[in-house]
Amino acid sequence: MSFQDPPTLLSLAVQSLVKNEALAINALQELPRELFPPLFKAAFTGRHTKILKEMVGSWPLLCLPVGALMNVPDMSILQAVLDGVDMQLTGNFHPRKRKLQVLDLRNVHHHFWDVSAGPEDGDGSAETVCQKQKATRPHRYALRRRLKVVTDLCLQFDLEEHQTYFLQWAQERRCSLNLCCVKMQIRELPIHTVRKILQIFQPYCIEELELNTGWTLSTLACFTPCLGQMKNLRKLHLTLVHEKLFTFLRTSTDIQEKSVTKFISQFSKLNSLQHLNLTGLYFLTGHINELLGCLKTPLEFLSIALCKYSQSDMESFAQCQSLHHLKHLHLAGIILHDLSLVPLGIFLENVANTLKTLELEHCRMTDSQVSAFIPALNKCSQLIEVNFCDNDISTSVLMNLLHHTANLSQLIMELYPAPLECYETGFVLRAERFVQLSSELMNILCTVRQPHSICFASQLCLICSQRCTYGLETRLCHCCQ
């Protein structure tokens, strides 16, 4: 037989109030502040929208992190909450009696709901991302007493109903509220729509921006002044998807160079940038040094994918001071077979004490290029993950590479390409040869150190679009079975 603890007086009081809507609303003015959080949670769970609206309108604590309760967007609850904010804006509150300062709509865990809010607990919960920012804020005196509405946005071509409603509501009240978007994802929206959205929110509040678009270089250059206003931006993920790349490349050289310069110059204004992820920025060839030279703070994460490198671009890694404490370097789809990778070896020595992940996938590196940085790789004692898949490396160089990983005791994930000797003319994989050589390489590694998770992977099969892999288990593509 199991016994359950009897309900507390607090829970009984909350249950009684949510069952009587009129009583709950009338009691709000006299309700002890300790009852507000549990009553709000109960009303939220029971979808009592009228109670929610009135509670937001008379909220006695500094912060209301309602987004932590909204695992799934709910139009009726969102509308009730925003109607409650309108009550705050139109109510005749004395400045000292007006408590609510931050409405947090982000769907992130918040300790506020884990404890009963006592006299001080609710006030302490008002510490939000926007309040922690140190950069100079425009109109800071005018914004000081405004109610802050903090949110994250993921906007695509077809906006959902709750997104359209919120953006329209925010647009109409942007002069009365301090609207902050901390994480903003924008995918496949035209630039005029993006500009309208960015005009709603304070740019200094944006800490993470993900922009996935098919814009041309000239269109991107028109957007860059907006980027330069995001003084507290910590993470930037920019992906350009080009359906007509050759049309873009026929752009006048003078016009293209001006657009590139305009784009790169904005990075000198991003004083908090730590995470930079760029994909498909074809125009950066020959300009990587300028881009890295504009960085004001040390990067922790750098990913550049689907872009052609020049030799000067590769040399800029070793020269850039902002990369000397880098923790993660990911280069994917960067064709390097015609470049000297000696500068990469120098760079690896510079970051030997900080680098944790190194991904050089699908770079078409050759034996001589990999051999150029193997000694430096051996010094990167903090590495936990490496990926060298889709590179043209022979068995002997792979053996040498594995022998030089003895000091990399923290590696927990290793991905290596199938040796060149596994292929026939036209890169047709010989399955038996692949298994044999991979087994030999695995045995060599086990004599050096004990691997955690390791995989040797072939190139994608041109027929079935699968890989053959050898690691903890062997898996052959459909064509090799």
Automatic annotation (TrEMBL):
One of its GO terms (biological process) is negative regulation of apoptotic process. Keywords: Leucine-rich repeat, Repeat. The keyword rRNA-binding does not apply. It comes from the Eukaryota. One of its GO terms (cellular component) is Cul2-RING ubiquitin ligase complex. GO terms for molecular function: ubiquitin-like ligase-substrate adaptor activity. Belongs to the PRAME family. This is PRAME like 16. The lineage of its organism: Eukaryota, Metazoa, Chordata, Craniata, Vertebrata.
